[in-house]
Structures are given as structure tokens and as C-alpha cells.
## 1
Amino acid sequence: MPAVPLRVYITPFAEQNVREAEKWSSDAAKEALNVVNAIWSKANLSFVMSDCVVDKQLDIAKSVRNNDQRLLDVLTSRHIPDNSVHIYLVNPIENLTAGGSSYLDSDPEPASFVQWYYNAAAHGRAWAHELGHLMSLDHVEVDYADERQAALRSNLMTKGLSTGRDLTAKQIGKVKGSKLVNRFAG
């Protein structure tokens, strides 16, 4: 099973130089990664932490944290891209409806952030979802009024705060051909 290396940064927030209590720990990251690997084992992929460090605090106002693209840009600007996927684990973000954010197709670099959800199953599912974006998967849109789309509700890439963990054969094929998988595990 190909293994994709992850450099994990536990990134504490601060506002006006007042550091917030960290939610993530190395142990919580390992538990979440076990969930990630259980989900992606369906595609015969695994992810390994090459490093897990507590990063320097990010002093950013709470009022601007809920712009996921801007936050991801700030997080990635703090580190030089290398031969790993960079994952930033952050505290819960008020008014952010996403579990995190990723650069679709790993462009310009393979990086994501995942916010804290209070249990390993939810963290891991959000993390697996963000990795899906890095491996070229986009959101699955579900019309909840259409009973024929009931199976999509349990898909990993369902948009919104979902608990889905399933992948279709088409999604697995797309992931296997993605830039990220070919770069790291091809």
C-alpha cells in the first residue's frame, strides 16, 4: 500500500499576542490519522506522519479566521514547500462552516488545514475529506429531496458538515491518477 508522507503542524492561535489554549495534541493527531487511513484504505492508500510539531502561534484576529482560503494562504506562507503534504491542525473556528480547507489538486502545493471537532472520528473524517481535495476530488452535491441520491449522503466528499466516509469507484480511480498520489506514492 503506497504511503504519502505528511508533515503535521499543530498551529495554536493567538489574538493580540494572547495565546489560546491548544485543542490538538500529537496523540489526537495520531488518533485522527488512524481514521483517515481507515477511510482511504478503500483506495489502497495510506498516510504517515513524517513529523508532528507544535508550530509557532499564529496571531490572527478571530474576525478574519473564518475566510478559509485566506487562512490556508497564511498558514502555508509560514513554511517552505518540501517533499511532504503539509497539514495544519487548528482550534475550532467560529462561523467557519467547513471542516478545513485544501488547495484543490494540490495546486499550488499539497497543503490543508483541519479544525478541531472534539472527537477522533470527526477530526479524521474532515482530514480525509481535505486530503480528497488534494487528490483532485471536488465536493459531491446532494439534493436531499431526491431519494435516488440517498447513497450520496454517505460519501466522503459530500459538501457540508457530513459524516460520510464512502468513496465511489470513479472517485478512487480519479485519486489513483492524481498529481499527489503519483508524486508521493506512484
Note: Strands lie at 3-10, 13-15, 18-19, 46-54, 58-59, 85-90, 100-102, 111-115.
## 2
Amino acid sequence: MKDSVYEPGKRTGAWVKYKVNRGQVFVIGGYTPGNPFDALIVGYYEGEKLLYAAKVRNGFVPLVRREVASRFKANGQVSISNPLNLPEKKRTQWALTKEEMKNCVWLKPELVAQIEFTEWTPDGHLRHSKFVGLREDKEAREVVR
């Protein structure tokens, strides 16, 4: 490795790219429908407000997706109103639009999930988020950025 020279655009066995993921707990505020759901909508508390952080689609295998969905129903989780600070004023690729929100199913902000991600965007959203698991040891109100 010491004798190798980095050349942009050229691949050799001497240089390896890897990502370092961060992890944090987030409150599940809702989901987008699918089989049984497509993505989780997660956030964190800042004072009394539950702020939107990401739509998390990755990290699920069918069994885990069904188990998570069963927790929504088992706890009587379905809420009629949006618990998050949505819709956002600025449209970015990580934000949810008013149109997308019409399809969302909102939940009481009680379930907490461990999420991995590569970084925070300047708008306070997660980039490359991935579901790791539900957390039973954390209270939703304790979840902050």
C-alpha cells in the first residue's frame, strides 16, 4: 500500500473504498403502505416537537418487515394525525411532499428503532439510512439528535 499511487477513476487492488456508518435511535412516526409497509418515517425530539429525519426503506427482510408491522397493530399504534413537523417548507430529495404524505399511515410516536446512516444532510435529514432493529430499552421522549 505504501508504494501505490492513488489515480482517480482507476481501480486497483491496492485501494479499497468503504463506508463508515453512524447509528442512532429514532422515533417511528409513521410508514408508507406496502406489503405490509414500504418505508418507516422516523424522527427525533427537539423540545416538544417531533422533527422528521428520514424515510427508511433499507435493512428489512420480509420476516422483519412483518414483525415490525405486527407491532404497529399489537400496540394499537395507528393514529389519525401526523405527529411529525410535516410537511416541510423546502423540497429536497429527502423531504416528504404533501402529495406523498396523503399515502402515509401515521402512528402514535411510541416505538423506537435503531437506524444506521452515513451522514446528516444540511436540512437535518439522514442520508443512506438503514433499519437495524426495534429498541425496547428506550423511551420515545428520550430520543434527541
Note: The radius of gyration is 18 Å.
## 3
Amino acid sequence: MRAYSTDLRERVVAACDARDGTRDQIASRFSVSVAWIRKILRQRRETGSIAPRPHGGGHPRAFDGPADLRLREALRADDDATLGELAEAAGVSCVPSAVHRTPVRLGITRKKSRGGRPSRTAPS
């Protein structure tokens, strides 16, 4: 979700300072929540600024360049390995969903190909 514009922040704070209504009325007029108004006023009181704060950043990737290479090698060596086995082979401690996302990001597919000829009598 993107931060509200500085213009909107200034108009909401100005309306609160001018006491143009209750916070509920101001929130409905500008289509924001009352909790957001409380937050922006608290931020101004504590920091003196109503500018949006920088993004927190999130978690770093579990698989960096060398771990990506180890994962590629592990997938070549054993294409039937589970996600936990692949993480162990790559030397990374992470959740299975991170192991699943990495081959997708690298463009590696794990779909099995059919081993034999299709059946003539059964649907394939």
C-alpha cells in the first residue's frame, strides 16, 4: 500500500488544527480512518513532521548468489528432493516457501515429464 500524499496529509492536519469538525467527520470527509488521523497527529507531535516514514525494508533474501548456485546443483543432482532437503543441500535455514520461490525466481521448473508413452485406452 502506498503512503498518502503530502497534500492530503497537510489538508487533514489543517482541518484538525482548525477544528472543522470531529475526527470522525474529518475522516469521512477525506476518506481516511480515524486511527490514521491519530497516527499522523502523534507523528507530528513527536517528530515535528507529517512526511511519510521510510519503508521498513522487510526480510533479506534467504538465498543469495552462492546459495542460488548450490540450489541449482542440488536440483540437478536430485529432482525429487523435498523443499526441506533442498534447503539443507543449499546450506540455508529458511521456511519451505522461500525454497519454493527461489527456483521460480531463477526460472527453474520442477514439473516432471512423462516417463513413457501415453496409454491408448485410458485418458491421459
Note: The chain has a mean pLDDT of 88.
